[in-house]
Amino acid sequence: MRSTERARRAPRLASGGAIREAAARLFLEKGYLGTSMDEIAAAARISKQTIYTHFSSKEQLFADLVLGNTERVEEFAADLIRTFRQASDLEDGLRRVARMYAALVIQPEVLQLRRLVLAEVGRFPALARSYYERVPERVYGMLASLFGELADAGRLRVEDPRLAAQHFAWLVLGIPLDRGMFLPADEASAGVAVDDLADAAVRVFLAAYAVTDGEPP
Asked: Which pLDDT belongs to residue 216?
């Protein structure tokens, strides 16, 4: 490629990040229908035509925003497993996992994205399904694998690892996520000690799934 052609392409390629950043801010603030490509272009300080060199439509840009955030899940799932294996015992490991899981999900930007996906299920059902499969389902699968391994080692009493994973996830996330979906950000976190809720979730989970003294696994 000639240097002049590279020079022309460089600003357009670099603008992709600015477009995503502006689109994310506007979609999360105003919703899909409330956001126009003109507004995104103005927020990104580029022309609307430049947006179309990266994304063929507003729909494609929206899908890129939603699914682009799912790429972090694989790294997060691996971090959860690492966190568990660094713990001193089973309960400590589950507490660490629960706290880490809750801390990620209740971040304002994560809650906003979740609200946005839910709001647009009727318009983009395939996109919502893809998000569900790549985010909640991926974490359930990772937890199920961990709990199955712990059951095989005689450390948990689990007949259905996937069901146990879903129980764990909703014990951990149920209260803070419910508040985060329905209340403004400042109210959602007010008076909520997320680590305490995560620790309580682990105690309830172990009451159902722990192997008691003298009990065969």
From this structure: 55
Domain count, the chain: 2
pLDDT tens sequence across 39-96? 999 999 999 999 999 999 999 999 998 888 677 888 888 899 999 999 989 999 999 9
Region 13-26 average pLDDT: 78
My answer on whether 112 and 198 are in the same domain is yes
pTM for this model (two decimals): 0.83
The region that residue 36 occupies, defined by phi over 0 for left and psi between -120 and 50 for alpha, beta otherwise, is beta
103 with 192, same domain: the answer is yes
